[in-house]
Structure of DUF3073 domain-containing protein:
Amino acid sequence: MGRGRQKAKQTKVARQLKYYSPETDYRALEKELTSPGTDTDVVDRNDEPDTEDEDWSSDNRR
């Protein structure tokens, strides 16, 4: 296949992907968004102090 045909085919596929809009299932989307997530048990480690950085300060350099 020549470069022109290859580019035309890629352009055609890209256009199909860009403008393809599948039928949206709004009920499934609503169910997914309203269901309780399992991420509530995740611990945010940024709230805990770093123990390895405690020795470093502007007054006490190693």
In short: The chain has two helices and no strands. Residues 3-19 form the longest helix (17 residues).
